[in-house]
Amino acid sequence: MLYDNHGRTINYLRLAVTDRCNLRCFYCMPESGIKYVNRKDLLTFEEMLRLLTIFGELGINKLRITGGEPFVRTGIMEFLEEVSTLENIHQVHITTNGTLTEDKVDLLEKLGVKSINLSLDSLDRQRFFEITRRDEFDKVMGTLHKLIDSNIKVKINMVVMDERNIEDILPMVELTRDHDISVRFIEEMPFNGTAGQGNETLWPMKKILANIQSHFPTLEKSPDPPFSTSSNFHIPGFKGSVGIIAAYTRTFCGTCNRIRLTPQGTLRTCLYGKGQLNFRDLIRSGASDKAIENELRTALGKRAKDGFEAEKNREDEVSESMATIGG
Ligand code: SAM
Ligand code: SF4
Known about the structure:
Blueprint: E1 2-3, E2 9-10, E3 12-16, H1 45-58, E4 62-66, H2 76-83, E5 91-96, H3 105-110, E6 115-119, H4 125-132, H5 137-148, E7 153-160, H6 169-178, E8 182-187, H7 205-215, E9 220-221, E10 230-234, E11 241-245, E12 258-261, E13 266-268, E14 277-278, H8 279-284, H9 289-300, H10 307-313, H11 322-325
Parallel strand pairs: 3-4, 3-12, 4-5, 5-6, 6-7, 7-8, 8-11
Antiparallel strand pairs: 1-2, 9-10, 10-11, 12-13, 13-14
Iron/sulfur cluster binds near residues 24, 28 and 97.
């Protein structure tokens, strides 16, 4: 098993397979995009599979594929087929913007993908366009409906943004009336690829909750599964559930079981911290499996207690795009 220096078990890896994306969500990237990593500096799928095999033997059994947009990377479906054969990875989850996903849902279901988090910040075409800066609303809605009809568990991720999509909160909750889906509202974080983003969120969890409760007074708290990042709720009689992710106020760090690998192979033991070490360089310098294991254990032995400590420990300001970290 893998443990950090605070006694927390680490069994969950979030793997960003690319930093490239076909949307320009304004909370994630500037309109002009970000400077992408050179292709030769990205982890190859072969390198990822080697790391997954090593990490799997050490106790990583849950994997999230994210990015950037995972489905823009050529070869992703073949990679997911390989991942589905890895003995120790028991759960594969994917986070996607849904623009290129609809026609892949059947195969993803066959490969045993456990859940898909679909990022959808508005149910209104115009607001969707203003947030993502791309006219892809129909494709994302097509993916949503295809997912609802599949056996894959569906979660909608909606970043809550003042003056952008507050009017979407209630219609999103309404979606849980007839559909067995989970709608999760995420506090906006300062990861939009530019510096100087201020140090507060205008829609913290408490405010999101109050907004929902004022219109759905029967909203009830549900038990939160272990290691859950969302605080979970449901409305009696509704098929689905509602979650709020305090990504900015960081109330869930105490039980964090996650590590991240960026597209170029940098290990991040906390979303808010700087990268700890680069596995691509280690692999390309000929490191053995044991050396890779040792480096991972050393990094986990110096893990920050929470996102606030991780942020304090870095010399620079949080300013990178979420697409380069893997949200
Ligand atoms: N492209 C895929 C997608 O959008 O689902 C996967 C990568 S995206 C970086 C992963 C998640 O991070 C998305 O749900 C997105 O909404 C969230 N995210 C990105 N930037 C964020 C920010 N500044 N604050 C909160 N969530 C953010
Ligand atoms: Fe792309 Fe996802 Fe970032 Fe939006 S949130 S720009 S879809 S990586």
